[in-house]
Amino acid sequence: MPTDLPPTSVDPDAKKGKLWKTILVWSLVGLLGAVSWTILALHRGETINAVWFVFAGVCSYFIAHRFYAKYIENRVAMPDDRRATPAEYAANGKDFVATDRRVLYGHHFAAIAGAGPLVGPVLAAQMGFLPGTIWIILGVIFAGAVQDYLVLFFSMRRKGRSLGQMAREELGPIGGTAAIFATLMIMLIIVAILALVVVNALGESAWGVFSVSMTIPIAIFMGCYLRFFRPGKVMEISFIGFGLLLAAIIGGGYIAGTEWGQAIFHLDKIWIAIAIIIYGFVAAVLPVWLLLSPRDYLSTFMKIGVIAMLAGAILIVRPEISAPAFSEYIGREDGPIVAGSVFPFLFVTIACGALSGFHALISSGTTPKMVHKERQTRFIGYGGMLMESFVALMAIVAALSIDRGIYFAMNAPAAATGGTVETAVQFVNNLGLTNVNLTPDMLTQLAQNVGENSVVSRTGGAPTLAVGIATIMQHLTGPGLMGFWYHFAIMFEALFILTAVDAGTRVARFQLQEAVGNIWPKFADNNWKPAVWGATALMVLGWGSILILGVTDPLGGINTFFPLFGVANQLLAAVALAVCASIVAKRGRHAFKVLWVILAPLAFDLAVTLTGSWLKIFSPNPKVGYFANMQAFQNALAEGKTSFGSAKNVEAMQAVVRNTMVQGSLSVVFAILTIIVVVSAIVSMVKSWKLDGQPTTEPRPIPSRTYEPSGLIPTAAEREVEQQWDALPVDLRLTASADGKHA
């Protein structure tokens, strides 16, 4: 190996431009953001323009990434590009693969951006536009993006260790074991709910099933193209893949209109669930370059493109939102969509768009094994979460842009609406909503416009978001294309979520292998196929069983399981933040000066999730408490009733009893495990203070022999070093190419 290579890092404080220009630009961004926030906070008219949501979010995100994330990088993470990352020193061509930062940003964003940023904001729109908007934007800046960034960085420094394994090494056997069990169990719930949203979106939709199915061969083609035919040609294959994706969408509309297309692709929800279970296993055992990375990059290309298109359409159309800042259900527990008051249930309903423990699993799963240079973690971790928050913001705007009566008719379960247009209209008009007067024609005309038989009780959030996107886009392209935009959005959402399902399954496999590897070291070997296949099968069997429960749930599945998903997800975030706090504290007392960056979101998250857990476990209100609901149905069965509430027969009543028992029991287990982890972290931090630090669990640094810029757009200094590396002979050029192979 030659020693006279160009530099492997660039001084991050190198001069980047004229100071006065920088001050002017950021002053203008700050001013626009302040004006937008003021209008959102103080406006109390009948309508408010949606453009202020876009401006408030974008300005806040730019400022946060430039200043707050930079503060965290300099004071908490302290990356050093002179150190080799696991993708360089442990490269194996399968899991540890140095990947182009732009492709890895796509993979990471695609993996973390599942159902949460699409479904949660849509459901939380029941409470009005202001609470959800505040939590989505401020929550991500001070909590969600902080967690994602630091977990990614600390995992990368520890050879891509999973969250559970890091907890075991940092917190000791008690806290570590609790964290391992918590992450494994919560992961099963999260992946199952992600898959359930896909099932609800694609159920009995031949167009959607065909289009989403075609993304699999398209992604495999992209992976082979980059691997064997045109290595490094990222933009080239991106445009090819995007063109094939559009062809799949357009072709899906044609095929859905044929008899043979309906016969093949018009599937019941249970069969779609089985297909997703099979897909989850196959996708998790294939090499990342073959399906995971190209599919995620393709879906990211699609996701960011659609969200940018929606944001642009909002700026052009300037839709007026009639929903109030605070709705009638802000302090009530009897919401028809989300049962429970704004605190704590808003903060667990909007999970992935602001703070998500699931992200910690991705940030300590596939992504840290693919990071090329340490300073890229800010762009990938913090920046990726900001993009997801923007997705959540666009989702709540789209949901709020449709008529409020239609919104409630679509999202309330069939047990409440009756499942027909007439009964849904009666249900909504009896809710006592201000300025809402729903008519049957409004629902039937909407269904006709989007090419569906009915839009009543299309729960899960995804159909509502699709209607919102179609409603906004049809102002630009005409009402005749509303059906295209609706199914385009459905495909976009399913693609959005499926990437999280396959990445989540792979991460769950990593976690199980590491956990069992503590007892049987051979099982932790990622190159031993019996362990890889066996761990994957066990994880798929676990979340697949929960998925089947959700699909067959008489209460609507998503309406009852999503609160469990939200609470479990945020409890997992508490585990991740506690582990990060313990790691930073071990540096010594001087590190406690910056520990507030982690402890502040941790304290708020614990207040929210433990309160939510308490209410879901002990609330006497059957609409809120799992066990109260279970008891109500048990009493009905004991009295010999053959129907009760939403259950129309004895089998359905028994299913409610079974599901609520499972949900309530899991809520108890998750809360106890989280408390054990947090207490263990507190003990570790107190010890670190007393001893002025503890030994690090990071492996000894290995000098890097490669180079790549840190952000999306290289600085002048980075371009200069990049040119030096490009001038080397091919056999000495060690920069990572887009498919993860060394050039």
From TrEMBL:
<keyword id="KW-1133">Transmembrane helix</keyword>
<feature type="transmembrane region" description="Helical">
    <location>
        <begin position="484"/>
        <end position="501"/>
    </location>
</feature>
<feature type="transmembrane region" description="Helical">
    <location>
        <begin position="48"/>
        <end position="68"/>
    </location>
</feature>
<feature type="transmembrane region" description="Helical">
    <location>
        <begin position="109"/>
        <end position="128"/>
    </location>
</feature>
<feature type="transmembrane region" description="Helical">
    <location>
        <begin position="666"/>
        <end position="686"/>
    </location>
</feature>
<feature type="transmembrane region" description="Helical">
    <location>
        <begin position="237"/>
        <end position="257"/>
    </location>
</feature>
<protein>
    <submittedName>
        <fullName>Carbon starvation protein A</fullName>
    </submittedName>
</protein>
<keyword id="KW-0472">Membrane</keyword>
<feature type="transmembrane region" description="Helical">
    <location>
        <begin position="531"/>
        <end position="552"/>
    </location>
</feature>
<keyword id="KW-0813">Transport</keyword>
<feature type="transmembrane region" description="Helical">
    <location>
        <begin position="134"/>
        <end position="154"/>
    </location>
</feature>
<keyword id="KW-1003">Cell membrane</keyword>
<keyword id="KW-0812">Transmembrane</keyword>
<feature type="transmembrane region" description="Helical">
    <location>
        <begin position="269"/>
        <end position="290"/>
    </location>
</feature>
<feature type="transmembrane region" description="Helical">
    <location>
        <begin position="297"/>
        <end position="317"/>
    </location>
</feature>
<comment type="similarity">
    <text>Belongs to the peptide transporter carbon starvation (CstA) (TC 2.A.114) family.</text>
</comment>
<dbReference type="Pfam" id="PF02554">
    <property type="entry name" value="CstA"/>
</dbReference>
<feature type="transmembrane region" description="Helical">
    <location>
        <begin position="23"/>
        <end position="42"/>
    </location>
</feature>
<feature type="domain" description="CstA N-terminal">
    <location>
        <begin position="49"/>
        <end position="611"/>
    </location>
</feature>
<feature type="transmembrane region" description="Helical">
    <location>
        <begin position="337"/>
        <end position="358"/>
    </location>
</feature>
<dbReference type="InterPro" id="IPR003706">
    <property type="entry name" value="CstA_N"/>
</dbReference>
<feature type="transmembrane region" description="Helical">
    <location>
        <begin position="594"/>
        <end position="615"/>
    </location>
</feature>
<feature type="transmembrane region" description="Helical">
    <location>
        <begin position="379"/>
        <end position="402"/>
    </location>
</feature>
<feature type="transmembrane region" description="Helical">
    <location>
        <begin position="564"/>
        <end position="585"/>
    </location>
</feature>
<dbReference type="InterPro" id="IPR051605">
    <property type="entry name" value="CstA"/>
</dbReference>
<feature type="transmembrane region" description="Helical">
    <location>
        <begin position="205"/>
        <end position="225"/>
    </location>
</feature>
<feature type="transmembrane region" description="Helical">
    <location>
        <begin position="174"/>
        <end position="199"/>
    </location>
</feature>
